[in-house]
Amino acid sequence: MSDLAARLRTLPAFPEEMPDLDLEALPEDPTELFLAWLEDAIASGARQPHAMTFQTLLADGSPVGRTLILKDLDEAGFHVSTRNTSRKAQQVREDPRAAMTFFWRESGRQVQIAGTVVALGEDVSQRDWLARPTSDGQPNPEWQVYALRPERFEFLQARADRNHVRAGYVREGGRWSHGPVTTPAG
């Protein structure tokens, strides 16, 4: 074991007390659980509880991620924004499959959301642009709001013994199905 590996093993991992994830009490709609966890993160005083890793695909199929913030959540999906000339905008034009990973270390919670990205209308994009703290009050034709339309969710509640509890949701025929997510031993 290297010195780095030994040092990394000594770093604190999870808080002493963490909430539970009751697999018997999952809501039918995963956005309900997501919003409850997001509200818990906001109430905890966590810094940037709306930050997530947004993953897109390069032309060769390799994943690439960057940290973005969730701008909104509605019937269109999970909103993010960027210039329509950015690399991530180009990537979602070439392959609209993407994923988001939220991590709230204060509660040991993580949510992965995967689906397809769509560009939202000019009105939504300009409202977002004009609400930015750096906006000069002028429209920005390069600004674009996108929505990730979820097809899969995985909720993870960490446990100190590392036997984390996972719940997965999959959209099938317009309806959500859910259950525990198990990982193979090894």
UniProtKB/TrEMBL annotation:
Record-annotated Pyridoxamine 5'-phosphate oxidase N-terminal domain positions? 38-155
Cofactor(s) listed in the protein's UniProt record: FMN
Task: Give the enzyme's EC designation.
Answer: 1.4.3.5
Annotated InterPro entries = Pyridox_Oxase (IPR000659), Pyridox_Oxase_N (IPR011576), Split_barrel_FMN-bd (IPR012349)
Its taxonomic path starts at: Bacteria, Bacillati, Actinomycetota, Actinomycetes, Micrococcales
Q: How is this protein named in the record?
A: Pyridoxamine 5'-phosphate oxidase
Q: What class of enzyme is it?
A: oxidoreductase
- Which domain of life does the protein's organism represent? Bacteria
Keyword entries, A-Z: Flavoprotein, FMN, Oxidoreductase
Q: Which GO terms describe its molecular function?
A: pyridoxamine phosphate oxidase activity
